[in-house]
Amino acid sequence: MESLKKYALHVPQILLPAKGTDLESWAVVACDQYTQDKDYWQRAEKIAHGKPSALHIILPEIYLNTLSQAEKKRRTDNIKRTMADYLANGVFAPPLDAFIYTERKTSYGRIRKGLVAAIDLEEYDWRPEQKAKIRATEATILERIPPRVAIREGAPLEAPHIMLLVNDPARRFIEQTGEIVKQSGEKPVYDTDLMMEGGRITGRAVSGGKAMDNIVESLCEIEQANKAADGSVFMFAVGDGNHSLATAKTVWEHLKKTAGAPADKNGHTAVPEPLKNHPARYALVEIVNLYDEGLTFEPIHRVLFNTDAKDLIRFVHSKLGGTLTPCKDGAELARTVEQSPSAFGFASLQGGFTCLNIPTDALAVSVFQPVLDEFIRTKEMIDFIHGADEVFRLAKQKDTVSILFPPIAKDSFFATVEKYGSLPRKSFSMGEASEKRFYLECRKLL
């Protein structure tokens, strides 16, 4: 629809598995989850073994630091061959020209609503100074992009785990659209349990009528509410999959340059006429309302390996100041951190449990992470962990320090990104690891 272009949206041709496919084996959690839990991915492989599955067309990040370059290339080539095989051998049903309204009930009992759509990469930029309609919320680490580019470039398919946020306190764009679709009697295009306590997800097509009218009208309201004094509009924020979206943008920009398109002084390359409607111009995402009751903002915690807890705490305290308070156990530490937006918790086998409350009026993660970066000698020293249980499990290992981060408030989220730009990498997570988006829908890229 032409009326959607000004809002950076595009109605995609969505590929879903053909009737009769075991969707519980097909759908798999985002590749950047469970990065310290090889058992999770081994169990997923057993579930998907011998069946069509999105697991066979992704590369879980847990393997990125352990595979040789030759093995990464072998796996990447195999992913692309599998994609082509799925397209050629009837794994997918005929394309669906529609958005998909989703309802996801997680294992925590929360129901999160979303809209699967394609976004125009011409309207996305991870550089905060560009004031794009679609903006990164966290710093983009450029060295994380090439391994993803190797998979996406030349691939015949994409399967997204990208989730965008929309600032819609009226709950009209997604929630009201969903009610219209359900009241119309629209049957689900899928309705399935998700593997390994991932909950359940239902999807309904949105292709026209009152539901599409509601989408266009609500987008107009959101545009007006999020227009800055300089005329720029902050339509969508990247909640999950920032580096995957940056990868899609990189591949698209490379395609334009290969076609001989010139770049302006800001580095933006014009779209050549032959590529005006190329599938690579778009990326498939799920959009979720920031104010969705089923959407929780969970902090992403840090774990440092080969680290002495006392040295780390001493260093951070010397840089940030604040008050150090010992806690009797992990439960007390978790409660203390959760109750203060400027508190951090340190847990380790040797050092026990310590809380640091720092003096700041900024989002605490934006103050803490630069200090942590200064302390870290090699990137192998740190991992980013979703969920407090995993943090405390890892803290029991020798020479390992887990750091609990405080939550981020929703009501100041868009305003903070608008004013200060991107947050440090891995500042927040939308839900627990098992609540992350599962790969289910696909779209052709060639």
Ends: how far apart?
21 Å
Global mean pLDDT: 93
Count of runs of 4 or more consecutive helical residues: 12
What kind of sheet is the major sheet? Answer: 10 strands, mixed
Radius of gyration: 22 Å
Helix content estimate: 25-40%
Query: Strand-residue fraction?
Result: 15-25%
- Name the assembly state: single chain
Number of strands: 23
Q: What is the overall silhouette?
A: globular
Poorly predicted runs? none
Structural class label: alpha+beta
Summarize the structure.
The chain has 446 residues and is α+β, with helices and mostly antiparallel strands.
Furnish the topology, listing elements before pairings:
Blueprint: E1 9-10, E2 13-14, H1 23-26, E3 28-29, H2 38-48, H3 69-88, E4 96-97, E5 99-105, E6 111-120, E7 124-125, E8 134-136, H4 145-152, E9 157-158, E10 163-166, H5 172-183, E11 190-194, E12 199-206, H6 209-225, E13 236-240, H7 242-258, E14 282-289, E15 297-305, H8 309-320, E16 323-327, H9 330-338, E17 343-348, E18 352-357, H10 364-375, E19 382-386, H11 388-394, E20 400-404, H12 413-420, E21 428-430, E22 438-439, E23 443-444
Parallel strand pairs: 7-8, 8-13, 10-14
Antiparallel strand pairs: 1-6, 2-4, 3-22, 5-6, 5-12, 6-14, 9-23, 10-13, 11-12, 15-19, 15-20, 15-21, 16-18, 17-18, 17-20
Provide a descriptive summary of the structure in words.
The protein has 446 residues and is an alpha+beta fold. Helices cover 31% and strands 24% of the residues. It has helices spanning 23-26, 38-48, 69-88, 145-152, 172-183, 209-225, 242-258, 309-320, 330-338, 364-375, 388-394, 413-420; strands at residues 9-10, 13-14, 28-29, 96-97, 99-105, 111-120, 124-125, 134-136, 157-158, 163-166, 190-194, 199-206, 236-240, 282-289, 297-305, 323-327, 343-348, 352-357, 382-386, 400-404, 428-430, 438-439, 443-444. Strand 11 (190-194) and strand 12 (199-206) form a beta hairpin. The model has no long low-confidence stretch (mean pLDDT 93).
